[in-house]
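Memo to structure team: turn this sequence into structure tokens by end of day. - J.P.
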Amino acid sequence: MSCWTAPEDTLAAIITELQERGTQFYRLYAFTPGESDPPEEYGAHLSLFREDEKIPAEGTPVLLKSEDESAHLASPPLLDALSPLTHGVEWQEREKGPLRELAHAPQLPEPVSLPGAYGLDRGSTGLWMISHDGRMVLTDKNLDFLNTHGMGWVDAYEVNGESYPISPMLAYGGRVLEALSRSGVELPDQPIYLVNSTASDSAENVGNGRQQ
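Reply from structure team:
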């Protein structure tokens, strides 16, 4: 299996050619907010460095995951920057070291919608692994939640009106993402954005600059 990235002005022709050849393919979408996209209209999942990969200097704002990848960690300077933006989120001290560990974050009130799911696999634990085209849609209720709480757990996806429980993933609101960027927090990869329904619907139109 291969993945290609195509310029906007050639995408429609490529899709037509693949369809005429009878070649199976999936169209994938990647979102990157622009200056005109208000942070209140999106969130993101983040890839984090492990604490053994990124040892912070004292006083440096950092957001990491533990060495066994079971916990989210933050430095006190970062928590100072995030405290006005996060509510209902609790961090606790660890036995050693300056970093704080995430002790509690609330759950999003509704599942995240996947309008382009193409593979559903249920694991032995009852949780689902769902392949999709990159579009992850936050309902208005979920957006309001992220704007209020700053971050929260996504524990279910919605596909064609059905809810599927998944292994929980932490989502960060747009305002928190801006604060992380201003604080100079380094990430190993680009955020995976969750957007509102308007942005998701517009991604289906060739030439809007939001497709991959």
